[in-house]
Amino acid sequence: MRSRAPLSLDVAMLAVSASLYAVGSMLTEYTASPWGIGQFRPAVVFPTVFAILFGPWVGGLGAAIGTFVAAMLTNGNVPLSLMAGVPGNFVGFFVLGYLASKFSWRRFAWVTVLSLLIGNAVAGLGVVWYLSAFVGWPSPLSVRGMAIALGLTSWWLITMLPFEFVAVPPILKALWRAFPSLAERSSPKDDGLSPKSILVSLGIPGGAMTAFGFFLWLNPTVALLMMSGLHNPAEFVAATTMMFFLGGLALVATGATLSVYFSRPGRRPVPSSGNTATSE
Fold this sequence. Notes:
Elements: H1 7-27, H2 45-54, H3 56-73, H4 78-99, H5 105-134, H6 143-178, H7 180-186, H8 195-218, H9 220-226, H10 237-262
Helix pairs in contact: 1-2, 1-3, 2-3, 2-4, 2-6, 3-4, 4-5, 5-6, 5-8, 6-7, 6-8, 6-9, 6-10, 8-9, 8-10, 9-10
């Protein structure tokens, strides 16, 4: 279990986490989703690392503050950030930090997927709530509003998960080796992400996304619902269908590639400085 850090250290790490997340988010601020809102954000690896190492409050507050600062310094849409980005990021990374308090790589695999799903769902509903209040989009309580929120949630999940599994393990490995006290605090329990854990954690959501893309291809009216609120939403039906189909395949391919990579001897992330345990 993660030992309790001094309050001064938590405050310092909160500031570092928020700063890194803000800068990283600003770098990709204008890579919008198919809905024209919500961005491609590899920077999620920063609050993930801090949530694992320093707990839910550092992870959640760092992500909330970081996304708010990024919004203020780029698009300036403070109401949207407060209604969607801030609560979504706080909830998602708070959940991640809380569930990862007894850290193991097996737990990391499913906690990452679950926390991103929850956080992105909160953000997606917040976006629809904001757009319904200020732009005239469908209500988040309507079928069309829920369809839009589902689309946004899925798009974020598809684009975030590969970075979490590719970047977070080596970052943690480097930090544990450089600062042994961090390894003692986060207490990793096993010797690394197993190939099976990676394949399942990315393959299940990826397979579901691919299946849903095939479903949209057979039922284009559902895709039309997901693009409600846009001008000429029919123009985006094909793109939405391909987003799910190809995005899901990309997740499956990423999971398969990483599982093969980490199945080789010496390739798994090492849990602590100098340790190379091989027992499961």
